[in-house]
Write a structure and sequence with these properties.
With about 850 residues, the protein is an all-alpha fold. It folds into four domains: about 100-205 and about 420-460 and about 535-545; about 210-405, GTPase Activation - p120GAP, domain 1, CATH 1.10.506; about 605-695; about 700-840, Glutathione S-transferase Yfyf (Class Pi), Chain A, domain 2. Helices cover about 65% and strands about 0% of the residues. It contains 33 helices and five strands. It has helices spanning about 1-80, 85-95, 105, 110-125, 125-135, 145-155, 160-180, 185-190, 195-205, 210-225, 245-255, 260-290, 295-310, 315-340, 350-370, 380-385, 395-400, 425-445, 445-455, 520-525, 530-535, 560-580, 600-625, 630-640, 645-665, 675-690, 690-695, 700-720, 740-750, 755-775, 785-800, 805-815, 820-840, and strands at about 100, 420-425, 475-480, 535-540, 540-545. The protein is globular and about 120 Å long. The chain starts with a helix and ends in a 5-residue tail after the last helix. This is Receptor-mediated endocytosis protein 6 homolog. It is a peripheral membrane protein. It is found in: Membrane.
């Protein structure tokens, strides 16, 4: 019995051992699988990290290219002549092919020295601010270019939050060094030539959050203004009648000097005031509604300006408030209202009448913003008295709310992802920057600044540029015809890097946002003809690495390192909190926090597209100014025609004349094929906007009344219409997306577009939107024309765009022969829908 028990025990032990071995084998297999899984995940993380780094590298390149194109555009706006158009087009196109190379290939053994120098400069924004301030005192001619180099190269156009923080520190220091010590800081700010004004302008243009706010707040009211741009809306009553041609003036107001003339003029003034008040109130409402996305960085700067100037006690409180209003409205919001195309707010070319009306709105907004501190002209109180008191100054109060002691680092996300790994700069820019700092170091009497700069630049080699001196570091150079393989010498032509200035559309004299005086910079622009341009290429862009940057792959850090980073993050946050209050402006420690980028490649590609589009629009504006006499003759002859076919032929002939002139004009010879095609579209829009009222309503008041009858009929239908209306009977499966607001939005703005082609595109986008929404609602079937038509009719009734019948007639007259394919199909559906609505009843 005992032996049996032992046997059983041994058997059980063997079973347990075998079971344990099986468990161990299962555990080993699971561990092996987990190890393989972890290794696979690590490889995926590494691959994704490499893609992120590659995308970030492309983002830096695109940002650099977009900034150079913006500076090229600003050159053209400064000169506002056609003599530089060929050069600007060449520079804009050649920068697209920029060659980015590792800096050691060009700098050789000095690569590490320059890398350390640029990194020190980037991490010490207060030093840069002191240098910019002193550079202005000794009147260096390269100041404008240096400001551009600092923003584009040192701070990388602020595409990363850490660059934005450095730029904010620099701007605050410039406030203390320039505005706080000036006897008339507002005049200094308004003049626009001080380092703070220059840097703030570029900073607000680069800031992504600023673009979001401007688009959200201004797009809808600007589109609303563009839909009614047939008459000038003058603020000044003395200029109202002058805008009309003598014959038009006689028809509208009667004979000058008669009681009838005075009464008609007063009625027109009352109509103008009512129109301006309605339009401006819409701007105010949209700005107020979107104030939640106002850039925090700009709010912080406004608060800092108020705090610094109040502590300085050199100007009155009302002057301080007026300067803060200038910073927000005159230097940020109003320029975007006047030139919405350059900010990407709209892609519609602005007619000269619409531009003037936008300028009037911008002026009204600025006067209202200043009304708390400056008295309004009494003769204009019939206009400004219609607005609510403090309607704009209250918005400024909301912007100024908040702490003035917070650090700029608190304004951005503190997430760890990307930080800057390299600085993009050309060799000529690098040499210009070093020369500037050495000049300041030699001339300054500040011992701390002198010692700091000596430490930075003493070990750098003296810039050696063969040939004549090149103070502005031109990016474009001539191609060498020799077989020498040595690096090419930069050209002696002046740079197009440093020419950021006012837009070509000037605001009235009492609006100061474009009052900066850069005429001397514009006069120095080089003229490059097509033959010279063909022999030039872009200077290589050096990719200078930032030393000491640790590129650990996210998700693969050790626990100790993660804890150490969190500790360092808290420590750095505390240091940054005290950073801006320290008296020593020259001892700024390195920024260690890594922050997450908020941008994408598509945004910088859009910026490039906006620059190219606005360059073409500006070029067309200059081109048409040269042909203004012919344009006026065309408008007068068009008004004399009666038959629709004759009008269409007249328009086609004149457009072909202008298109042929563009093809043979030397100023367009360096433009690309896409730029030429875009120029033709802009020319067509400009010409059609001149004759739009006469072409849209060829029968005058008769057409207007006809459109009004249909508009009122559709208003009544809109009150009773439902998807189940007996004339529509839209299937219930499609009701989930009702009332299809995105499709309505495309039709609401149809009158903002002046060319038949653009109106067709509005209809096309509306129909495509409806078809996409119907497809999403019904996964089992593809919607057909029978499904589209009732929904299109419903959308038309709800959108109810004005001048609908005249719009159909306008497109049929001037574009019917060019309709084909998809455009013809959708336009037929749209026109049929309009005809169907005319016969609908209200039951």
């Amino acid at each position: 019995m005992f032996s049996q028990d032992i046997t059983v025990l041994r058997v059980n032990n063997c079973i347990n051992i075998m079971s344990s071995r099986m468990d161990l084998m299962d555990l080993a297999r699971h561990l092996r699988q987990e190890a393989l899984f972890v290794q696979s995940e690590k490889q995926n993380l590494q691959s994704l990290n490499e893609k992120v780094m590659k995308t970030a590298e492309n983002l830096y390149h695109l940002s650099w290219i977009a900034r150079q194109q913006r500076q090229t555009l600003d050159n053209l706006l400064l000169s506002h002549t056609d003599s530089n158009l060929a050069s600007c087009y060449h520079r804009s196109n050649v920068v697209e092919t920029a060659n980015f190379i590792d800096s050691y290939k060009q700098l050789g053994i000095n690569d590490c020295s320059y890398s350390e120098f640029l990194q020190l400069l980037r991490e010490n924004p207060k030093v840069l601010a002191s240098c910019l301030n002193y550079g202005e005192k000794i009147d260096l001619s390269t100041m404008h270019q240096i400001v551009n180099i600092i923003m584009a190269a040192i701070y990388g156009n602020c595409i990363l939050p850490e660059d934005e923080v450095h730029a904010l520190v620099l701007l605050k220091e410039l406030m203390s060094l320039q505005l706080a010590v000036s006897d008339n800081p507002r005049r200094l700010l308004r003049h626009g030539s001080c380092a703070f004004s220059r840097f703030y302008k570029i900073f607000s243009e680069c800031l992504f959050s600023a673009k979001i706010f401007l688009t959200a707040a201004l797009h809808e009211p600007i589109m609303n203004l563009l839909m009614a741009d047939d008459l000038f809306l003058d603020i000044d009553p003395s200029k109202a009648a002058v805008r009309f041609h003598p014959q038009e003036r006689l028809r509208h107001f009667g004979k000058e000097g008669t009681p009838e003339y005075a009464a008609s003029l007063q009625n027109y003034r009352n109509w103008t005031i009512k129109k301006l008040v309605n339009i401006t109130n819409r701007f105010i409402e949209e700005i107020r509604n979107n104030l939640y996305c106002f850039p925090q960085s700009l709010s912080w700067l406004a608060r800092q300006m108020y705090n610094i100037l109040m502590k300085a006690k050199r100007v009155e409180v009302r002057e301080v408030g007026a300067m803060c209003a200038d910073l927000v409205f005159a230097f940020f919001i109003c320029p975007a209202i006047v030139d919405p195309e350059s900010y990407g707010i709209t892609d519609i070319p602005i007619s000269y009448i619409a531009r003037f009306n936008l300028m009037q709105v911008a002026q009204i907004l600025q006067v209202l913003a200043m009304s708390k501190w400056e008295e309004i002209d009494r003769k204009l109180m019939d206009l400004y008295g219609k607005f609510e008191k403090d309607c704009m100054s209250s918005l400024l109060d909301l912007i100024l709310e908040g702490s003035t002691t917070d650090s700029p680092a608190d304004l951005v996300n503190q997430f760890q992802d990307l930080n800057r790994s390299a600085i993009l700069i050309t060799e000529s820019e690098l040499h210009s920057l070093v020369t500037f700092l050495k000049t300041v170091e030699a001339e300054t009497s500040d011992p701390i600044l002198k010692k700091t700069l000596y430490t930075m630049v003493n070990h750098l080699p003296t810039p050696q540029i063969n040939g004549p001196s090149m103070p502005n570091g031109n990016l474009v150079r001539e191609i060498s015809t020799s077989s020498d393989n040595q690096p090419m010498t930069p050209s002696t032509k002046r740079s197009f890097l440093g020419k950021v200035g006012r837009k070509s559309s000037k605001l009235p004299s009492n609006m100061m946002l474009n009052s900066d005086n850069h005429a001397d910079e514009a006069n120095g622009l080089p003229e490059v003809d097509a033959t010279v341009a063909a022999k030039t290429q872009l200077e290589d862009v050096l990719v200078v690495p930032i030393l000491g940057i640790d590129f650990d792959c996210p998700g693969m850090l050790t626990e100790d390192k993660v804890l150490a980073m969190e500790s360092q993050k808290k420590k750095t946050s505390l240091e940054n909190g005290n950073l801006l209050e320290e008296g020593d402006a020259l001892s700024v420690g390195p920024e260690i926090i890594e922050k997450r980028t908020r941008f994408s490649l598509s945004q910088d590609q859009e910026d490039k597209q906006v620059c190219n589009q606005y360059l073409v629009m500006t070029s067309v504006r200059i081109f048409l100014e040269k042909h203004d006499r012919y344009l006026q003759l065309f408008v007068r002859s068009f008004q004399e025609l009666v038959v629709a076919d004759e009008k269409a032929i007249k328009v086609e002939e004149f457009l072909n004349y202008l298109f042929n002139y563009v093809q043979n004009d030397p100023m367009w010879q360096t433009a690309s094929v896409m730029q030429i095609e875009h120029a033709k579209a802009v020319i067509e829009h400009s010409v059609m906007s001149r004759i739009y009222t006469f072409a849209l309503h060829p029968n005058g008041d008769g057409d207007v009344l006809r459109d009004k009858v249909l508009h009122e009929h559709m208003q009544k239908l809109s009150q009773v219409i439902t998807p189940n209306h007996k004339d529509l009977r839209i299937p219930k499966i499609y009701h989930s997306e009702c009332p299809w607001p995105s499709a309505q939005a495309e039709l609401v703005n149809i009158n903002a577009y002046k060319t038949p082609r653009d109106k067709i595109q509005c209809v096309l986008r509306c129909c495509n939107t409806i078809m996409n929404l119907l497809s999403m609602a019904s996964n089992k079937s593809v919607p057909a024309a029978d499904d589209l038509m009732p929904v299109l009719v419903y959308v038309l009734i709800k959108a109810n765009p004005p001048h609908l019948l005249s719009t159909v007639q306008y497109v049929n007259t001037f574009y019917e022969k060019q309709l084909e394919g998809e455009e013809a199909y959708w336009w037929t559906q749209f026109a049929s829908g309009v005809e169907f609505i005319k016969n609908m009843d209200y039951s």
